[in-house]
User: What shape does this take?
Amino acid sequence: MLLEISHVVKSYRNGVRANDDLSLGVAAGEVFGLLGPNGAGKTTLVHQILGLLEPDSGNISIAGVDVVARPSVARRLCSFQPQAAAPVEQLTAREAIELIGRIRGGERGTVRRRAAELINALDLDEVADRVVPMSGGMARLTGFCMAAVVPGQVVVLDEPTNDVDPLRRRVLWQLIRALADDGSAVLLVTHNVLEAERCVDRLAILGAGRVLALGTAAELKAKIGAPLRLECTLDTPDPPPLPAGLTAVEIVGRRLVGRLQLPDVGAVVAWATHAQDTAAIAEFALVPASLEDVYAAWIEPAAVTS
Assistant: This one.
């Protein structure tokens, strides 16, 4: 593993244990998703990887280098997009991106070409050379470009798609994938569970400072034992009586979602078809379980017990 985290513990003065014997690794060429609710310990872990915080115990290494003992090496080997927008008020987006590329040791012409490629790919040409207040989405995209113009061996992206419009977000996921394909180990911190599924190779779900689940999306789906989900749009405010095979049902407004096992498919589809015929639901779809189902299955029990 290019990035190795072993038995890391970090507590704050108020007694909160942000990381509790946390271990995981990210390989070169891999996009690794780090998921979890607010307070799960994601940001604390990121700050330790970057050498900004020292763990109470445990080890963190990048390319075999102990970055707890040598935090300056961590900052050299990593490039980072923080959750907060980069402060570039006095610079154009292009100037900010090229400046960071030069600081990270890139050759002037190479940095200029790479910056232009990123700006063009994300359709930022019209705003890239203006010194104006940026929208939230434009600031996020500029921050990503600053991290990607001369990527480190480890690239840490904290909520890179926040406030980004759907079309640019699609391109952004492709660029994130390309960073890994070019050899970086990409650590992706995100709440956008559904979109992350298209990009991550493996993921860890954190809760209360611990790793609750670790593996590929397919492996974690298999562990929750619910391979399918039923999605319905209700025609009336109240749903009809639900079939026995439908579990973990959530109703938000007129949208109903529930999980089911393969042996229950026939009975559940028959129920949904009858409900549609009697105008209780407007439409329904049977789809594979998503990463969102996995996330909910692991986080909700942890929230109850922690």
User: Anything to note?
Assistant: Residues 166-181 form the longest helix (16 residues). The first strand starts at residue 3 and ends at 11. The chain has two domains: 3-221, 227-288. The chain has ten helices and 14 strands.
